[in-house]
Amino acid sequence: MEDFDFVKRPILIVEDEPVNRLLLAGMLEENYEILQAADGREAMRYIEKGEDIALILLDLLMPNMNGYEVLRALRERKLLTQIPVIVLTSETSAEVQSLNLGAIDFIPKPYDAPEVIRARVRRIIQMSEDSAALRRVGQDPLTGLFVPSFFFRRIERIERYAPDRVMDAMAINVNNFHLINNLYGRACGDDVLLILADALKNEMEACLGVACREHGDNFYLYMEHHANPEDMLIRIADGVRQRAGIKTLRLRMGVYPEVDRKVSMEDRFARAEHACQTLRGNYTRRVAVYDEEMFHNESFANNLLESFDEALAEGQFQVWYQPQYDIRGDVPVLSGAEALVRWLHPRYGMVRPDKFIPLFEANGLIARLDRLVWHTAASQVRKWHDEYGSKLSVSVNVSRISIRDPRLEEDLLDIAQHTGIHCRDLVLEVTESAYADSMEQLVNTVGNLRANGFLVEMDDFGSGYSSLNMLTSLPMDALKVDMKLIRHITDSEKDLHVLTLILDIARSLALPVVAEGVETQAQFDLLKQLGCDRIQGYYFSKPVTAFEFSHFLVQPTGKPA
Questions:
Q1: How many helices (H) and strands (E) does the chain have?
Q2: Which string of b and e fits 467-487 if b means at least 16 CB within 10 Å?
C-alpha cells in the first residue's frame, strides 16, 4: 500500500467497555486516527455523517444496537465493500454468523497480542485499499458497471464453475441517444445512463447475470438463457422512462442466444451488437435475435471485406458502361455513358453493387474503389476517342467519403493528365444526400472542380433530401432524377406531378435533366413529352462491358436493336 506509513487512516473502534476501547486505541493511535463509539447507534452516526473510515473494529455484544445489527445495516447500505469490518469477540461460535453478514476478520478477546492486532489491522486496510483500487480500474467511472476487460474475466469465471449453464449474450443501446444529449443536455444524458445501469444491475442480480458498459450508450449483458428477452427489455425501458422522465425514450436489444462457447468472447458480443444495429431506425421492433441468416450475411460481408485488397490487386472489379441518349430530337442520339462497377468474385461469382458498395462505404474502403473506377473509365474514354473518334463523356460516381477528401481535386486532375483526356470528358456524379450533409464544404469543393473543367451532376435527385434553396445555391451542370421516381410515372399521379415540377424548375435554372431507370416505351414517350433531356436505362440497354459498348459507338443514333 503506497505511502501507508505516512498517512494516518481513520479507524472506528465500536466497543461498549471503555477499558477495552482505551486499550485498543493505545495499541493503534501511533499509526492511525482513532474514532470511538460506545454502541452500534453511535457508530452508525459516524458512518451516516460520511466520516472517511478505513476500518471498523466491531464488538458484537453491545447495548442499544449490537454488532450483528451494525453488520446488517452496513450490508443493506452496500458499505461493506468500502469499509472492512473486523469483529471483536470471545465467542468462537459467533465467527460463522459474522462472516455471513460480511465481516472480514476476527480479533479474539482479551486483547493480549498487540503486535498481532496491529499486523491484522494493517493487512486488512491494505487489502481493502488494494481491492478498491482494483475496483476503480475495473469499473466504468460513470455507471459503476464493469468495463469490458473485467466483464469478460467475470464471464470466464462463470463458465469455469458452471460449464453446463446455457447463456445469452446481449447488447442494449438507447435509440437516438445523441438527441437526448442535444435536447436535454449532457447531464441529463449521464443521468439516463446511470438509471439504465442501475436497472441492469438489479435485473442481473435477480437472474445471476453480469453487465458492463461497453462505451457510450452501449451496454452488454451475459445471463442465463431467457425465453422471452423482449419482456425483460420492456420492463427495463419502462422503469428507465419513469425515473428519467423522458416519455419518448426507447431501448433496443440484440441477442445472441445460447452462445457457442467455442466462439470468442469478443465475437459473441459482436454478434449481439450486430443484431442490435439491424434495429437502427426501426420503430416497430425492440429486439433482434442473431440467427443463422444473420450469421451467413455477416460472414458474407466479412469475406467481402477481407478479400477487398486481393480483388483490387487481381482486377476482380470490372467497370461496365450503360449508355445515355439525348432524346430532344426526332431520333435518340448517344450522348454519354455511366461507369458502373461490377465484382467478379472467385467464390461468389458476380456480386451485385448493392451488396458491396454500402459495405465499403461503411468501412472506409469506397474511396479506393472510386479511384479505380475513375482511372479505368478515363482510360476507356481515351481509347474510345482514339479508336472511334468519338467525343463521348463518361459519368463516374463520387462517394460521400471521396467528396470530402482534400486530395480529390488533385487526384482527378492527375487522372485526366495521365490518361490524356479533357476534364469535361469525366462527368462527376455526386449524390443529393452528400450535398445535404455539408453544404458549405461541398459548394467550395464542387466549385473548384468545375473551375478546373469538370462537369458535375447531382445524382439521385428527388430521393428525399432536396430543397428549392439547395437547387439555387449549388454549383452543378445537370440533375439526374432518381430511378425510384421514374418507376411509377405512368401509373402514379403523385410521382408524375413531382417529376413535372422538377423538370420545370430545372428549365428555369437552365439545367439539363437525365432520367435513369427508364425501362418501357410508355416511360420513354412520357419523358420525351415532358421535355426531359437525356435518358438512361434498360429501355436502351443494360450495363455492358467496354467491348460490348463499342456497338453503341458504331451506331450512335436510334434505339439499338
A1: 22, 19
A2: eeebbeebebbbbbbbbebbb
Please list the residues that pair with 224 across neighbouring strands. 167
The residue ranges of DSSP E strands in 232-379, in sequence order, are: 251-256, 287-289, 317-326, 333-345, 349-351
Q: What is the CA radius of gyration of the chain?
A: 36
The enclosing H or E element of 396 equals strand 393-398
pLDDT tens digits for the chain (561 residues)?
333 344 578 899 999 999 999 999 999 998 898 999 999 999 999 888 877 788 999 999 899 899 999 999 998 888 877 889 999 887 777 778 888 888 888 888 888 888 989 998 988 888 887 676 656 667 888 898 888 988 898 888 888 878 888 999 999 999 989 888 888 888 999 999 999 999 999 888 877 789 999 989 999 999 999 888 999 999 999 999 999 999 889 999 999 999 999 999 999 999 999 899 888 877 788 999 998 788 788 888 889 999 999 999 999 999 999 999 999 999 999 999 999 999 999 988 999 998 999 889 888 899 999 999 999 999 999 999 999 988 899 999 999 889 889 999 999 999 999 999 999 999 999 876 666 566 778 888 889 999 999 999 988 887 655 555 667 677 889 999 888 889 888 988 888 998 998 899 889 889 999 999 999 999 999 999 999 999 999 999 999 999 999 999 998 887 776
C-alpha cell at 432: 443529393
Single pTM value for the model = 0.62
Q: Would strands 105-108 and 210-215 be described as parallel, antiparallel, or unpaired? A: unpaired
DSSP state of 213: E
**Separation between Cα atoms, residue 533 and residue 367, nearest integer Å:** 31
Structural domains of the chain ordered from first start: 4-138 (3.40.50.2300), 148-290 (3.30.70.270), 302-549 (3.20.20.450)
CA dist list (Å): 149 to 120, 142, 166, 261, 309: 32, 16, 22, 17, 32
d(CA 77, CA 61): 22
Which three cell numbers mark 143? 455507471
Q: Indicate the SS3 state at residue 378.
A: helix
Q: Nearest-CA neighbor of 269 among 312, 210, 317, 314?
A: 210
Sequence length of the chain is 561
Q: What residue has cell string 491494505?
A: 126
Cell 476487460 appears where?
Answer: 149
